[in-house]
Design brief:
The structure holds 2 protein chains of 2 kinds.
Chain A (H helix, E strand, L loop, with lengths): L1 H20 L7 E6 L3 E4 L6 E10 L12 E7 L2 E12 L2 E14 L2 E5 L3 H4 L2 H7 L3 H5 L13 H13 L3 E4 L3 E3 L4 E8 L6 E11 L2 E14 L2 H11 L1 H22 L4
Parallel strand pairs in A: 2-12, 7-8
Antiparallel strand pairs in A: 1-3, 3-10, 4-7, 4-11, 5-6, 9-10, 11-12
Helix pairs in contact in A: 6-7
Chain B lengths: L1 H12 L3 E4 L4 E4 H18 L4 H10 L4 H26 L4 H27 L3 H33 L20 E4 L4 E4 H18 L4 H10 L5 H27 L4 H24 L2 H24 L6 E9 L1
Antiparallel strand pairs in B: 1-2, 3-4
Helix pairs in contact in B: 2-4, 2-10, 3-4, 4-9, 4-10, 5-7, 5-9, 6-11, 8-9
Classes of the chains: A alpha+beta, B mainly alpha.
């Protein structure tokens, strides 16, 4: 991590310097860099850490601010279609009755902020700018249902995913190093699936959104994990025959080892 | 074995984790080995596949259901290979009977797969599966328990009832197309045997299980095949069916995790050896009594799941990742 942090700091420094050379801007500019854009899954992978560094750049024309900045970092994992089902009693037994489909749900959702979200801005603006888990999951484009009848299903989705550690909100996840430099540690649980992760950084002041920027990192299987995964996906027959041969071989080996005649 | 105890304690406190490439999550190596050994023991003891025990345990650990079913199929292949080879060596495997069972089973499997798709289209698959589990396990387990209690009682009264009375065969054994199965001490029509295999294949495909727990008691009670031959022949039939299932899971669903399979196999081969050895020292009536209890316990578990008020009524099922 130390080397990563050093590179990131160098990148941030270079970007700051580059920003100074560029033309005049009215409002603040946000520059964000990740400690790494690629996280490798190896056999002993038990979760990973990505650090996001950011700098808020001002120039002579930027209006003076009296209050401090707020930063919200939102990390969205690979999207998947999911179905949430609800058990209901039917006579003496409990069965899955109602169900609700959500077409594009992030498998991981982490929201890191410099202060509790409720203190940063109002409910209406949080919903509008999709700040926080409830705002993202509660958004109208999250579902195919129009009338909001699926609210209990959305709440259940958030509750279950939070329990698995895949959805989380960290109220002090972003820390300011100076008035205009900040960092956020994004800890991925081991169950967070491989794929593309989008990182969205929002800069707010006095409850208003100043600017927003996006970056991206990949969580990929590497080495042994990658080879096995590729073989299973691309050559199912060979993979299946190989696994069957393995099973038959070990079964036979056991009779040889334990033979007692 | 103090070193083994120490290794076990170390493994529990400092679990060695390994990332499963297909299930896409890390697991504790020792936990999976132990699980494989425990289920392997039961499987070797009773001559059943053990799929109905392993699948719920793996899902409980957080492994996706499709991967759990697909990967533990490989373990059943390994443990049934061991058992079938052992039975073959001891002369406790009726190849002829096994072949007839496999033929009937393949037809039943095809029908089961078709019914599975039809129930899913009708949106009632969950109901079909849970109700089948409850009724199958309760009925088979209950019948066996009743039978073995009766046996215990008559054994206590004095002379045990003779298990085979000359000339007193059930009528279905006398149907046309009679075949002689020497090892099984059976001379019977193939029609009820094929019918049984068909039913087991059907239920197995529908419920994602090998079906050994139906096959074993049916051969014991309906066809009066000797206990030792029942276990060997059932394992042979399970071996052939699960080999096909393993290939289908790997090709169609891509849901076989070879690393998980290997860990389950390593634990399972040891467990199955000790299970089979324990089974040989077990008295036949005790064997049937224990198997009945096991089946009833599983039936009860599914009944409770169906009847009790769930702590969390909601559940999530996730689809494929989209890039």
């Amino acid at each position: 991590m130390k080397a990563g942090a050093r590179t990131a700091r160098a990148i941030v420094g270079a970007a700051l310097w580059l920003g100074l050379l560029l033309g005049p801007a009215r409002a603040e500019t946000l520059i964000v860099s990740l400690s790494s854009s690629r996280l490798a899954i190896t056999s002993n992978y038990t979760g990973g850490l990505i650090v996001a560094f950011g700098a808020i750049e001002r120039d002579a024309q930027t209006i003076a601010r009296t209050s401090g900045y707020d930063v919200v970092v939102t990390v969205r994992g690979p999207r998947q279609a999911i179905t949430v089902r609800e058990k209901e009693p039917l006579g003496p037994v409990w069965l899955n009755r109602e169900q609700q489909k959500f077409p594009e749900v992030p498998a991981f959702l982490g929201v890191y902020s410099s202060r509790p979200l409720k203190e940063i801005t109002s409910d209406a603006l949080r919903a509008r700018f999709r700040l926080g888990i409830d705002a993202i999951v509660g958004a109208p484009d999250f579902t195919l249902t129009r009338d909001g009848a699926d609210a209990p299903f959305r709440q259940a989705l958030v509750r279950l995913r939070k329990r698995e550690g895949l959805y989380l909100e960290s109220e002090r996840g972003v820390s300011f190093l100076t008035g205009s430099l900040f960092r956020a540690g994004i800890a991925l649980p081991a169950t967070a699936p491989p794929g593309g992760y989008d990182v969205e950084v929002s800069l707010l002041i006095d409850g208003l959104l100043l600017t927003r920027t996006q970056t991206h990192f990949e969580l990929v299987k590497s080495g042994f994990e990658q080879r096995v995964g590729d073989l299973a996906r691309d050559r199912g027959l060979i993979y299946g025959l190989g696994t069957a041969a393995l099973a038959l071989g070990f079964g036979w080996l056991a009779t040889v080892i334990f033979r007692r005649d | 074995m103090p070193w083994a105890c120490r290794a076990f304690a170390y493994g529990i406190s400092e679990p060695v984790q390994f990332y499963l490439p297909i299930a896409e999550m890390p697991v504790s190596v020792l936990l999976i080995l132990t699980l494989g050994a425990a289920v392997g023991f039961v499987s070797g003891l009773f001559g059943i596949g053990g799929g109905f025990l392993m699948t719920p345990l793996l899902i409980f650990l957080g492994i996706p259901p499709a991967v759990a079913v697909g990967s533990q199929t490989a373990q059943i292949v390994a443990s049934s290979t061991t058992s079938a080879l052992g039975a073959l060596r001891r002369g406790a495997l009726d190849l002829k009977l096994g072949t007839v069972l496999i033929l009937g089973g393949l037809v039943g499997t095809a029908l089961g797969v078709w019914f599975f798709a039809a129930a899913r289209r009708a949106g009632q698959l969950d109901l079909v599966i849970v109700v089948s589990y409850v009724s199958l396990f309760s009925v088979v387990g209950g019948l066996m328990l009743k039978e073995s209690i009766r046996e215990f009682l008559s054994a206590r009264k004095g002379a045990a009832r003779p298990r085979r009375r000359a000339g007193a065969h059930p009528t279905y054994l006398g149907w046309p197309l009679r075949m002689r199965f020497v090892r099984s001490k059976l001379y019977a029509s193939v029609i009820p045997i094929l019918g049984l295999a068909l039913f087991v294949g059907f239920a197995g495909a529908l419920l994602g299980i090998g079906g050994g727990f139906i096959m074993v008691p049916a051969l014991l009670y309906l066809f009066r095949v000797p206990t030792a031959v029942v276990v060997g022949t059932s394992q042979f039939q399970i071996l052939c069916t699960t080999c096909v299932a393993l290939l289908l899971h790997a090709i169609v669903n891509q849901a076989v995790d070879a690393v998980l399979s290997l860990l389950l196999i390593l634990g399972g081969v040891f467990g199955a050896q000790f299970g089979a050895r324990a089974g040989r020292h077990l008295r036949a009536d005790v064997f049937r009594f224990l198997l009945a209890l096991l089946l009833l316990a599983v039936g009860l578990r599914f009944t409770l799941e169906l009847v009790l008020v769930p702590a969390e009524p909601f559940s999530i099922s996730a689809g494929e990742m989209k890039g």
